[in-house]
Amino acid sequence: MSFQFRxxxxxxxxxxxxxxxxxxxxxxxxxxxxxxxxxxVNTEGCESTPGTAIVALPLRGxxxxxxxxxxxxxxxxx
Length: 78
Known about the structure:
disordered C terminus, 78 residues, mainly beta, 4-stranded antiparallel sheet, 49% strand, elongated
């Protein structure tokens, strides 16, 4: 997952999150990998946080194994 903070969202603001499938990779396992574009939009229609993500979705009757151990970290660049 990657994203960019382009604009500050204030506490209490009403935000909407959207996502769109932009790619699909069929694997020989019991899952597919879907590439998503996603973003956060405020009430003025400004997108404050665009990004991308890859998700594993199970096929019918399939099972998703965890491919990576999840590690969440933030890096502040000044």
